[in-house]
Design brief:
It comes from Mixta tenebrionis. This protein is of the alpha+beta class and 169 residues long. It folds into two domains: 41 residues, Winged helix-like DNA-binding domain superfamily/Winged helix DNA-binding domain (Arc Repressor Mutant, subunit A); 82 residues, Alpha-Beta Plaits (2-Layer Sandwich). Strand 5 and strand 6 form a beta hairpin. Helix 2 packs across helix 3. The longest helix is centred in the N-terminal third of the chain and has 13 residues.
Length: 169
């Protein structure tokens, strides 16, 4: 698959909002037959345009209600230090996402832990336990407002409940 057309874009958008849509449901929403939607979905998967299907689980549901954002600056950018940091990030289960960034920090980590004590231990491990890390700066997430393109709360006075809003198609 080399080119993505408007039908493919619509399928990608719909699946991004709801990965559980059947080919028949896609057919109704896109205006193609179910078999055409199936072929297009398979092509998009094979072309690595669809990277997977998963359930978005609330961190609290698995005992990881504390989210932190950690900026990391490396001592230097030799391939040895970079590869070492990448390996550590891959092996550390508390690190949910890693982004290589511009600006003062080299990386931004999103972490999920059970408690402030666990966050403190993770930060100590990053700073003291890893030779490639020169500096970290941490922020604790107080409230998740919008995540993965979806509003998470009803508003500033909410009690933290999740409200899933459909994006305009």
């Amino acid at each position: 698959m080399t080119q993505i057309d408007n039908y493919d874009l619509k399928i990608l958008h719909l699946l991004q909002n709801n990965g559980r849509l059947t080919n028949q449901e896609l057919s109704d929403l896109v205006g193609l037959s179910a078999s055409q939607c199936s072929r297009r979905r398979i092509s998009l998967e094979q072309a690595n345009q669809i990277l997977g299907y998963h359930a978005r689980v609330a961190p609290e549901a698995v005992g990881l209600g504390m989210i932190g954002l950690i900026e990391v600056r490396l001592i230097n950018h030799t391939s040895d230090y970079v590869e070492s940091f990448h390996r550590m990030a891959a092996e550390q289960n508390a690190i949910v996402d890693v982004y290589k960034t511009t600006g003062d920090a080299d990386y931004l980590l999103k972490v999920a832990v059970a408690s402030l004590t666990e966050l403190s231990a993770l930060i100590s491990e990053l700073v003291a336990g890893h030779r490639s890390v020169a500096h970290v700066k941490t922020a604790v997430v107080l409230e998740r407002i919008k995540e993965h393109g979806m509003m998470m709360t009803a508003g500033p006075a909410s009690s933290g409940s999740v409200r899933h809003e459909k994006r305009n198609e």
